[in-house]
Amino acid sequence: MSQLLSEPKSERRISSRQRRLHGARIVFNNNASSIDCIVRDLSAEGARLRVASPVGIPDWFDLRIDRNGKVYSAKVAWRSHDQIGVRFINFT
Q1: In 13-90, where does DSSP find H-type helix?
Q2: Cβ atoms within 10 Å, residue 17
């Protein structure tokens, strides 16, 4: 177990993330609220998002990608001052 924790995050991912620069929206509160973000990395299981601030972003939300219209149900895995990492729920 301790060996797993010492491995880099990239080594613990199921699939590799690909760098992206897509506009997106964090949508929550029954579609009544949204926050703009930029998708920086994307994989089938999750993403790294750049945000102005993680303050006010709930733990669970829908991520809507502007470019292709895809919507992912997401759960926050980590937060920093201008980024959040999310895991997609029910990904295929």
Answers
A1: none
A2: 18
